[in-house]
Amino acid sequence: MKSTDRIFVAGHRGLVGSAIVRELERQGFTNLILRTRQQTDLSSRDAVDRLFASEKPDYVFLAAAKVGGILANSQHPATFLYENLAVEINVIDSAWRHGVKKLEFLGSSCIYPKLAPQPLKEEYLLTGPLEPTNEWYAIAKIAGIKLCQAYRAQYGFPAISLMPTNLYGPGDNFDLESSHVLPALIRKFEDGRREGREAVTVWGTGTPRREFLHVDDLAHAAVFLMQNYDDADIVNVGTGEDITIADLAQLIASLVGYSGRVVFDTSKPDGTPQKLLDTSRLRRIGWQHRIGLEEGIRATYQWFKELPRERAATVGRVS
Ligand code: GFB
User: Fold this and answer.
1) How far is the CA of 134 from the centre of ligand 1 (A)?
2) What pTM was estimated for this model as a whole?
3) Catalytic annotation present for 137
């Protein structure tokens, strides 16, 4: 990628897309193509085609997606499946037809089978049943991978796919119904501290293990792979380290300064028991994460604390 190349970041207002924009700008890329949903509805084939015809991007980061935590995924299966499939089909097909030089698709670690061996190697894709709480989203993301591989195989289109682990960072969704666990716990413990609550509730048993990557690290990897990787095989992007939800809750409580009790609500789902990526392929290509979990949570907490209180409840909420 040259600094003057035309780069379309699809989903530039989301957690991932906004971090990729920051990283591209930091590295001196000046010709970014950014469209809000109001300007270009990526689930509309015509709108996407018009955008590619008029803007003629050289490179595309496909970071636009309907995302949410375990509850949002379980409650809106049709939305998660339809919206993600529509965006993937429209953007990947238009990118190929309009001569894009390379497209990078952002997937998710939930594409792997629920009970696959850990750490999850890229070759475990499609070797077993998915985790039911997010199978709709996972099926859409698997379809995105397959579109990239199919367009590469049939048309020679240079499309690559990254599988990020659970992400967090500034710009995340802190709405308690639809968010992922890490921003939810930052908000719950911060509210608990401010209001002097005796107990804070954490969903599930606390035993599931998750791996967390700061979104600025993911953005760095995304730009690095766009420039240094060109193959059909998917690439995991993670830290190679995981933590139980109970330990994550303790860590966030101590960083926030909350000293009350932590209560587990076992009526809420645990989801998959463990999700830890094998990152040896990525390390062989030459990339490693830089932001440790504690440092990343501190920075995210700081960002959250500086939000105006009236925005704290709704920032990043997915509609
Ligand atoms: O982050 P999360 O919603 O998604 O939940 P997944 C991770 C774990 O944290 C689960 C527990 O065991 C939750 O029960 N948890 C505890 C909480 N307290 C909370 C809370 O207050 N809010 C939330 N949200 N969880 C997602 C998928 O799965 O992974 C998405 O739903 C996506 O599709 C993402 O792929 C990467 O890690 O279980």
Assistant:
1) 10
2) 0.96
3) yes
